[in-house]
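User: Before I run my own analysis I want an independent prediction to cross-check against. Here's the chain; please return only the structure tokens and, at the end, one sentence I can use as a sanity check.
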Amino acid sequence: MSNKKRKIIKGVIAILGVLLILCGCSKKESKMQTQAKDPKNITSNENKAENSYMKEANKAFSRAKVAPASDFSYGLTDSGDGVVIKKYIKKKSDEDVEIIIPSEIEGMPVVELADRAFASSIVKTVVIPDSILRIGEQLFSDSAQLKYVKLSTSITSLPVYIFMNCKSLEYFVIPSHITNIESDAFSGSGLRTIEIPETVTFKCNYFNDKQIYSSGVFSSCKNLEYVSLPNTMTVLPSHFFSGCVSLKNIKLPASIEIIENSV
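Assistant: Structure tokens:
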């Protein structure tokens, strides 16, 4: 066999060897990518993170102390059925602020939290007692340190912008007594996962005989990755997940009939 033929054969063998190596790497990489993107693995990891978060939340709730009346501005409700807290006025603290809202002030029940009562506040943990019957819009909006919230069992609706821009709110368990979530309730928050229970509907208004549903509920939640929607849902409202750049996994129920613009 001539030297020229030997060189050609060696060259072909070398090329085949390189191709086999590349093929093997490609298969390995493909397998690794498949494993990395497996929703079961991801969901399991998120469940562990959420469970850990909830354990810390329960510890925070147990540490929380009833805040003194001097930490609030307050007055009588318009109906005279009790006290309305108008504003949390404490501005500085050397420690994490973990409070229970008082159920009574000056011998009268605290029944209402006004619009923006805790907006831009320094609170990290808040326990809302069962005496609270009504909560206002934008209640905790722009409270960057807010991480743990326990709602009154008397509350059935999450008002508009209640947790808007609460960047430290990574998880929130929507309790079964919540039956309605209004527009932009969690917009811009730090939520990573959310499971919406079967009890929840989304506020529906009528405009020119057309149904208008809550929009933008989770808009601009840049850390939101996993969502489980209830089987009672028939409409995905407009802008529901707009700006959710990390969204990977949605449990979409068969009951959905309409997907509106810019979901």
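Sanity check: The helical segments are 3-36, 39-63.
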